[in-house]
Design goal:
Blueprint lengths: L1 E5 L7 E4 L10 E10 L2 H8 L13 E2 L3 E9 L11 E4 L2 E2 L5 H4 L10 E2 L11 E5 L3 E3 L6 H4 L2 H14 L6 E5 L3 H12 L3 E6 L3 H9 L4 E4 L5 H9 L3 E6 L5 H8 L1 E9 L11 H6 L3 E4 L7 H10 L1 H8 L2 E6 L3 H9 L5 E5 L4
Parallel strand pairs: 11-12, 11-14, 12-13, 14-15, 15-16, 17-18
Antiparallel strand pairs: 1-2, 1-4, 3-5, 3-9, 3-18, 5-6, 6-10, 7-8
Keywords: Metal-binding, Oxidoreductase, Zinc
Protein name: Sorbitol dehydrogenase
Organism: Teichococcus aestuarii
């Protein structure tokens, strides 16, 4: 079968023919992948930016951690799944032994492995995943929408970390798929939301089509002016989803006293903070990475609603056969798309 693989600690990826995975072992299920999304983390791995060296000892392996498909087989001891079921998966697999895992915090396990970042993932026709990490898709949710579950769970977790309440003034920096999901979910929770990007017409237009009420292109205005025009005051929460280090200090400049800034982007550069100013303003700096068990049922419930599903589906701008994956990666790098789905079954 064709697979998109990371084979060396250098820029690029390889489209290779590989053997399908072995039959699922105890506690595992086999999945025929119908759709898999290209994520910002995949782009970082493709570009081989600093911070992804952890992948090197595990190479070669198949990329892809945002995927959905249909069960082909179940291993011994698996209950609740049967061949043909439409499923998606949380790709973060904890060791099962540490304190974090025992407390249900897979994302905090220091020995965790992630399908598509440490071991074979979903940029192939077939993948094997722990049944305990798989979720059956609700009626009406197809595999394309199922492939959005993982990035939407990331967005949900960021909103949780920010502790957003109804009426909060929330600034989201970065209109990529994660930023779009964060802005949309914050708005669903009753927040007043401004989504800001820089010279990113395609994705800001997508935000408006999704029903995100306020957007700003910082190529034509300053962040302070955009915030003042939208809210008339500094914001309660800033959620950064740019991966551009300077946006963190810019976000702090428009954050009210005792406000919260959450970093979700992966940054290749260090950050110098005005610590004294931060302390005097009582600014809280937090980080959100990966997701949690609690996010998944919330995301699946949102997608089960046809109106919500229709809005979120607008993020999917391109669908490509897996063999055109390298072209999809280049499109994503250039920001010529919002969310690109690769489809192994399209030849």
């Amino acid at each position: 079968m064709l697979a998109l693989r990371k084979t060396r600690a250098a820029p690029g990826l390889e489209a290779q023919e590989v053997r399908p995975p072995a039959a699922p072992g105890p506690g595992e299920i086999g999945i025929r992948v119908a759709a898999a999304g290209i994520c910002g983390s995949d782009i970082h791995a493709y570009e081989w930016t600093p911070g992804y060296e952890f992948m090197a000892p595990h190479m070669p392996f198949t990329l892809g951690h945002e995927f959905a498909g249909h069960v082909t087989a179940v291993g011994a001891g698996v209950e609740g799944f049967a061949p043909g079921d439409a499923v998606t998966a949380w790709p973060t697999i904890g060791c099962g032994q540490c304190r974090a895992c025992c407390e249900g915090r897979n994302q905090d396990c220091q020995a965790r492995r992630i399908l598509g970042l440490h071991c074979d993932g979903g940029f192939a026709a077939h993948v094997v995943a722990p049944a305990s990490h798989c979720f059956r898709l609700p009626d009406g949710v197809d595999a394309e929408m199922g492939a959005l579950c993982e990035p939407l769970s990331i967005a949900d977790n960021a909103v949780e970390v920010a502790e957003i309440s109804p009426g909060d003034a929330v600034l989201v920096l970065g209109p990529g798929p994660i930023g779009l999901g964060i802005a949309w979910m914050a708005q669903q929770r009753g927040a007043r939301v401004l989504l800001a990007g820089f010279d990113d017409t395609l994705r800001l237009d997508c935000a408006r089509r999704m029903g995100i009420g306020h957007t700003a292109d910082l190529a034509g205005t300053s962040l302070a002016a955009a915030v003042q025009a939208c809210f008339g005051e500094k914001v309660d929460r800033v959620i950064e989803a740019t991966g551009v280090t300077a946006s963190i200090t810019e976000g702090l400049s428009v954050l009210r006293s005792s406000g919260v800034l959450v970093i979700t982007g992966i940054h290749s550069r260090s950050l110098e903070l005005p610590v004294t100013t931060m302390v005097r303003n009582k600014h809280q700096l937090r980080a959100a990475h990966d997701t949690s068990w609690a996010a998944w049922p919330r995301v699946l419930a949102l997608l089960a609603d046809p109106a919500h599903r229709a809005q979120l589906a607008l993020m999917i701008t391109h669908r490509l056969p897996l063999r055109e994956g390298p072209r999809g990666f280049e499109m994503a790098r250039r920001k010529d798309a919002v969310k690109i789905l690769l489809r192994p079954g399209d030849g």
